[in-house]
């Protein structure tokens, strides 16, 4: 008697996916969907774009799972697929969007204690207010841990541009933190 799919190990599910087992693919999809959508939402403008990127990522996963090295962990490997799919989706959509001028950053000091009072959800909300390229570079560098050289390859730009976008993203975030939270923080003291 076969055991239920819910009792299979991750490796057993991967092995079954390599044999194009639809039930195993469904299990892998269910196990990684939340993880994938969380990553994708950081790079995409809206939920529809994020869903499209996640679906593209799963298609790529199932097409390439036969080449997956069992000595690696699947989650970081899949994260890279999701990030690349989300960026590809943004690139496709950026062709239709107007290009923003790069603004000059100003030196502004924000009280570091404010940050400890902000929830992760509020920080993600602030990230959505950044211009697209700033948010994308910030996510790649600060959240996903890519180097400027890797970002340069992914986004097809000079690494110096990646550094500039990161610097400006951080400056814009400082301004957003100050604008959204500084007054409430001051009142709480």
TrEMBL record:
CDD domains according to UniProt: Sigma70_r4
InterPro entries: RNA_pol_sigma-70-like, RNA_pol_sigma-70_dom, RNA_pol_sigma70_r2, RNA_pol_sigma70_r4_t2, RNA_pol_sigma_r2, RNA_pol_sigma_r3/r4-like, WH-like_DNA-bd_sf
Domain RNA polymerase sigma-70 region: residue ranges: 28-93
Pfam families, A to Z: Sigma70_r2, Sigma70_r4_2
Domain of life of the native organism: Bacteria
Signal peptide: none
Domain RNA polymerase sigma factor 70 region 4 type: 121-173
Protein keywords: Sigma factor, Transcription, Transcription regulation
Family to which the UniProt record says this protein belongs: Belongs to the sigma-70 factor family. ECF subfamily.
Protein name per Swiss-Prot or TrEMBL: RNA polymerase sigma factor
Annotated organism of origin: Pedobacter alpinus
Taxonomy of the source species: Bacteria, Pseudomonadati, Bacteroidota, Sphingobacteriia, Sphingobacteriales
